[in-house]
């Protein structure tokens, strides 16, 4: 059965034009005027855009003594409800666990996905097994490796491990990613704050000032440069980190920064709320920042020094957050946002004039599809691309509320916020998963998206690394062996 999206305006990362879109067999079959199909979706007054791709989710993630509450079913349902048609989740080996073993666990969990997905692999410890298995992981189509520079004593890796893993990524044509916070300093600050009687959620923010993020971002950039590999910095929350990324990019380094919708629209005042639950529900790392840092992130999106808007969706219930009553270091870190990323970014970005519609498509979909080497299968409105599409009604409004959300948790960090701009239809490989606000997802419809290593940027960097590699200086008369 074919579907035609009629009377809409196509908006891509670089073009805006009127045309119909014909979908057949899960792919875009034709784009042009006057198309016909078995099923017609009316896009009058709407924009037809590539569906959103959220490259940073933690669904059913074991973390801080519990599991994040949204699994691949509820998480991807929330994604589709908000116009996101693909998620990239993190397979997370516990320290000492093999990468392939962890991957089997994530394969099982993801069988319930309503939309397409891929994985990043986390490197949470270092050894021969990890070194070896990284190749097999890449062979499975997982070509990005995440490193935590924070969470000391749990997921954190040290600089020697970071360098070894980055070099392995360079050999394999893979992309290293970092959670950039100086975990040693954070651990010291947490201990001191607790000793001084700072036990509430606000102390979480005190323990992770922008400097810990700026320092770690800069360190990771330099280590990646020495390893000859590109770098993706997740949840860039502040000017200190953004400045390091901006400077690196100006120097020609291949570094990408990813602000979250939460950091763009919520600020540190949330932690000073008199209600403990309200503040604890917003505990995440890095924490929300001041308005000045928010302005820096918005400027980065407009100027191109920041590339992708994600959510880091890692949702915990109020009951789970209460594990940290009396000790802020035990509050599970993480917030939700999958359903709200696109409407919140449109409302606070496009309708305010901070970014254009085309930039919206770039930072919610196309840029990450290119960075992760899955463009134009994903992130494009082109003939032959997957029909992951959103028909966007820029006039539709709603008030965000936990009462009507898809996520399994009992609150929403954006509760009460008015948004203007919502999906009229969301299509996942041609299947209409959302129609006029009605969510009609199909559990298990989602497919794994395998990615090729050796993206163009990796190839360019390794060519440069070869050209500039250390070589012995030939000295006349003395044999190289020295004998
Ligand atoms: N961000 C956060 O607080 N929780 C999820 C895990 C991570 O990305 O650090
Ligand atoms: Zn993180
Ligand atoms: Zn994360």
Automatic annotation (TrEMBL):
Its EC number is 3.5.2.2. Coiled coil: none annotated. It is an enzyme of class 3 (hydrolase). Signal peptide: none annotated. Keywords: Hydrolase, Metal-binding, Zinc. Transmembrane segments: none annotated. It catalyses: 5,6-dihydrouracil + H2O = 3-(carbamoylamino)propanoate + H(+). Its cofactor is Zn(2+). Gene3D superfamilies: Metal-dependent hydrolases, Urease, subunit C, domain 1. GO terms for biological process: nucleobase-containing small molecule metabolic process; pyrimidine-containing compound metabolic process. Residues 47-419 form the Amidohydrolase-related domain. It holds the Pfam family Amidohydro_1. Carbamylation allows a single lysine to coordinate two divalent metal cations. Homotetramer. Catalyzes the hydrolysis of dihydropyrimidines and of the structurally related DL-5-mono-substituted hydantoins, to produce N-carbamoyl-D-amino acids. PANTHER family: COLLAPSIN RESPONSE MEDIATOR PROTEIN (PTHR11647:SF1), HYDRANTOINASE/DIHYDROPYRIMIDINASE FAMILY MEMBER (PTHR11647). This is D-hydantoinase/dihydropyrimidinase. It comes from Phaeovulum veldkampii DSM 11550.
């Amino acid at each position: 059965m074919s579907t035609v999206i009629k009377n809409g305006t196509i908006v891509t990362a670089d073009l805006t034009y009127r045309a119909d879109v014909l979908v057949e067999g899960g792919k875009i079959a034709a784009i042009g005027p006057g198309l016909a199909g078995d099923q017609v979706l009316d896009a009058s007054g709407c924009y037809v855009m590539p569906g959103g791709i959220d490259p940073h989710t933690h669904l059913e993630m074991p973390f801080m003594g519990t599991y994040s509450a949204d699994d691949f079913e509820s998480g991807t349902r929330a994604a589709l409800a908000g116009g996101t048609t693909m998620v990239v989740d993190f397979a997370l080996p516990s320290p000492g666990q093999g990468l392939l073993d962890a991957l089997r666990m994530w394969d099982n969990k993801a069988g319930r996905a309503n939309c397409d997905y891929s994985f990043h692999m986390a490197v949470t410890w270092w050894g021969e097994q990890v070194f070896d298995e990284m190749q097999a992981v890449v062979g499975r189509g997982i070509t990005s490796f995440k490193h935590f520079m924070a969470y000391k004593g749990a997921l954190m890796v040290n600089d020697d491990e970071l360098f070894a893993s980055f070099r392995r990524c360079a050999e394999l044509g893979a992309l290293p990613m970092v959670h950039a916070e100086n975990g040693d300093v954070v651990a010291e600050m947490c201990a001191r704050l607790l000793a001084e009687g700072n036990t509430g959620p606000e102390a979480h923010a005190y323990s992770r000032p922008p400097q810990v993020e700026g320092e770690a971002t800069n360190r990771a950039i330099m280590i990646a440069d020495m390893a000859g590999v590109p770098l993706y910095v997740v949840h860039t929350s502040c000017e200190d980190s953004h400045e390091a990324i901006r400077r690196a990019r100006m120097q020609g380094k291949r570094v990408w920064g990813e602000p979250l919708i939460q950091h763009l629209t919520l600020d540190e005042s949330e932690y000073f709320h008199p209600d403990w639950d309200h503040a604890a529900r917003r505990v995440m790392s890095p924490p929300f920042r001041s308005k000045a840092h928010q302005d820096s992130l918005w400027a980065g999106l407009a100027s191109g020094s920041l590339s992708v808007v994600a959510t880091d969706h890692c949702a915990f219930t109020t009951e789970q957050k209460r594990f940290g009553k009396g000790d802020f270091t035990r509050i599970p870190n993480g917030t939700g946002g999958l359903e709200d990323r696109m409407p919140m970014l449109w409302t606070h970005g496009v309708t305010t004039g901070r970014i254009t519609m085309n930039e919206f498509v770039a930072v919610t979909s196309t840029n990450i599809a290119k960075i992760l080497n899955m463009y134009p299968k994903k992130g494009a409105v082109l003939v032959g691309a997957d029909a992951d599409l959103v028909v966007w009604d820029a006039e539709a409004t709603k008030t965000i509320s936990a009462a009507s959300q898809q996520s399994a948790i009992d609150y929403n960090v954006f509760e009460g916020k008015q948004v203007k701009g919502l999906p009229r239809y969301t299509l996942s490989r041609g299947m209409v998963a959302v129609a006029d606000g009605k969510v009609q997802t199909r559990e298990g419809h989602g497919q794994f998206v395998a990615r090729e290593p050796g993206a163009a940027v990796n190839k360019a960097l390794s060519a440069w690394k070869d050209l500039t590699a250390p070589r012995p200086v030939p000295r006349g008369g003395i044999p190289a062996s020295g004998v």
